[in-house]
Design goal:
Layout lengths: L25 H18 L8 E5 L4 H10 L10 E5 L2 E3 L1 E2 L6 E3 L2 E2 L1 E3 L5 H7 L2 H8 L3 E5 L11 H10 L3 E7 L9 E3 L10 E3 L6 H4 L12 E10 H11 L6 E10 L5 E10 L12 E5 L2 H4 L14 H18 L3 E3 L7 E3 L16 E3 L4 E3 L1
Parallel strand pairs: 1-2, 9-15, 16-18, 17-19
Antiparallel strand pairs: 3-7, 4-14, 5-6, 8-12, 9-12, 10-11, 13-14
Amino acid sequence: GGQGTRLGSSAPKGCFDIGLPSHKSLFQLFAERILRLQTLAAAGKAEGIVPLYVMTSPQTHKETVAFFTSHKNFGLAPENVMFFQQGSLPCLTNAGELILDAKGNIATSPDGNGGIYEALEREGCLADMERRGVTHVHTFSVDNCLVKVADPAFVGFAMATGVEISNKVIPKASPKEAVGVLATPRDGPSTRLFVVEYSELPPETAHSMTPDGVLAFNAANICNHVFSVAFLRRAVVECVPQLFHHVARKQIPCIDATGAPGAVAGIKLELFIFDVLPLALSANALEVDRANEFSPLKNALSAPTDNALTSRTMISALHRKWAAAAGAQFVHETQGSLFEISPLLSYAGEGLRLEGAVYSCAVNTHLS
């Protein structure tokens, strides 16, 4: 649950309206996908409860909880929605000194998405999973509007292969795409994986190809994982203490010797969720289609990619494909019009009966 500052919003990123015809927030899209899964499970005469655990930061916690409360958890039962805060770490000057952001108060920042492991244990979520009998957890980034929340195929893949961690990946769009890639140790077992950040991959390595013409380092990490709960418990005790923090150099808000506000060049420390990968006893990857499952929301509309426009456009394209497969026809093709299917109606294109339906692309459409 990061902040939406780069999107031009002061609210937590999950509260953001990407401009769909329904004007649903990211949080609502995710919650309704869970509701649809629970409906499908119930139709199959299985108990269909998918608890949702939302990680916040000290900066976003109250507003995130209030947003869910004001929308009645988007239809999810309150007992199946839990919020937990990631930790914070002190900010440092480049010389390693502590920074004050107010009189008597040390400047801190969130400890990164890798703080999830200790936070789950510290705030009782891990114990709650164990109490419920949950064996696997699907974890994803809040900024991916296309994520298939609790994807049964992905969870089933992780369970069937018996690994501690399974990772969804997509083929890189180009050698220069700014994403980390999954790799295996040169001399280690193929069941051990780690992520190489794009900034750490030499250009000649990033451009290297396999004999069949595919990028050698092509499995882009999209922060989409299934963990066994047993591994999450082990990670807190055995893995996290072995991790090293990453350094992010930023301007840190502070006060000077007179108490006047300002900023200083400094260091924020953070952990990444994938830092534990090399410590997992077994891990694997499932490659999926970018067009179906990945559209990150990183930037304001002034940026050319990864913004609200690209997010809503990719949802629209996917939903048109579902509708066409279900028998619908589209007329009056007009660039910029949007077509949306409510997650309450279909999770991934299933259950649609649209034979004979005709939709005009000259106007926005929302099927609910």
